[in-house]
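We examine the record.
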Amino acid sequence: MHSLIAALAIRRGGLRQADSAMRQVSFILLLAVAFVFGASRARADTAPAFVTSWGDSGTANGQFNSPVDIATDSQGNVYVTDLKNHRVQKFDSNGTFLLKWGTNGSGNGQFVYPVGIALDAQDNVYVVDSGNNRIEKFSTSGAFLGKWGSAGGGAGQFWNPQGVTVSGNGT
């Protein structure tokens, strides 16, 4: 078994996982009926079935060096935090590379170990920048929109944050 790093997202009945050991993204369809008929929940007693995967180890477009988390936007595009390449990569729903953003650093739009990722109802992308103790906000095209947090234990501060989520109503 390969060890997985914090990487599950359910959307439209499908389970997606980022596999840091294999350095690829795999898609598993939980319940075909739920996907086809638009059901919002997959049944726990249905065995998952492998659908597809993409990616390889490396630094080129579409390659990963420890993918950690994964999220999808309203158009079905897939976003993956690529921990040791200090970036976010965006793919279409078939796994075709679309774009990437981020480099190693502490400036706006830079990361030191991006881990968590989530999108809100307006398709704004929130990335947990663990090494910089902050959360950064981007457009779906990777344009930097803002940031929150700094190192510490006070209000609005973080120590090595790991995840981010969006509420059920998309905010």
Residues 77 and 146 are 22 Å apart (CA to CA). Residues 1-17, 27-42 have pLDDT under 50 and may be disordered.
